[in-house]
Amino acid sequence: MTKLRISRKKAQERVSPAPLFILVAPQMGENIGAAARAMLNFGVSGLRLVNPRDGWPNSKAAATASGAAIVIDQTQVFDSVDEAIADCQYVVATTARRREVPLPVLTPVEMAQALKKRVAAGERCAVLFGGERNGLSSDDVAHADAILSIPVNPAFASLNLSQAALLVAYEWSRADGAAPIENPMSETQTATREELDQFLYRLESALDDSGYFFPPEKRSGMVRNMRAAFSRASFTELEVRTLHGVIKSLSRRTDNQKD
Question: Domain span at residue 228?
Fold first, then answer.
């Protein structure tokens, strides 16, 4: 027992600012525990779960995590991807398929470098991992700023959840020395996902009122493409507030014309 307490303390001392790992609809507690163990192997401790099938806390996850109790004990659970990434400013989605969402596609090395620079600049970043059965949905991926494409055998492209977590954590640990990003265009920070989502929901509502989404059956695809376009822009807090003002002004003008 004493040795275990010492190992936990040492593990905590080696943990530094790192991206959050967000597991979306994970099924097996053993896979969650294995992912937690892989994370701590490379100094990552922030774990979030979205709708874990077997609930939380999970005894099988705790047992499989072994000495990674500091990851399991601090794990947070959310009802949706929206909520899980609300306080994040940069999100990468791991998926073997690019689907129909037009986002930048990064290699593991490129992803690690991008995350390292942003975390060093004080941004909260996250990596989304899909569940064991279906992976991430197109709607999940649409919340991201970029897609991680792992160069696996195309004839057998499926990675176990913990294997994907291990690979991402390993590449993160190797990316030391990346310089922080600089944004000379603005003194404000990059907007969080919650701030961007609030703007996008307002924009969608305004477009609904104007009849923009036509035909109705294409609305979901149009919304995904629009979200992807705005996500790629990496708006600052100030820019998002400006866009809110634009919508307010246009909506007021439209209302006056109706009168």
Answer: 193-258
Please check whether residues 36 and 84 belong to one and the same domain.
Answer: yes
Give me the phi and psi of 217, to 5 degrees please.
-70, -15
For the chain, 259 residues long, give each residue's pLDDT as a single digit of tens: 333 343 445 545 455 789 999 999 999 999 999 999 999 999 999 999 999 999 999 999 999 998 899 999 999 999 999 999 999 999 999 987 656 678 889 999 999 999 999 999 999 999 999 988 888 998 899 899 999 988 888 788 778 899 999 999 999 999 875 555 555 444 568 888 888 888 888 988 888 888 888 888 888 888 888 888 887 777 888 888 888 888 888 877 656 666 5
Beta-strand runs (E) in the chain: 20-24, 47-50, 76-78, 90-94, 105-106, 125-129, 146-148
Residue 56 domain-assigned?
A: yes
- Predicted TM-score (pTM) of the model is 0.74
Residue 187 lies in a domain: no
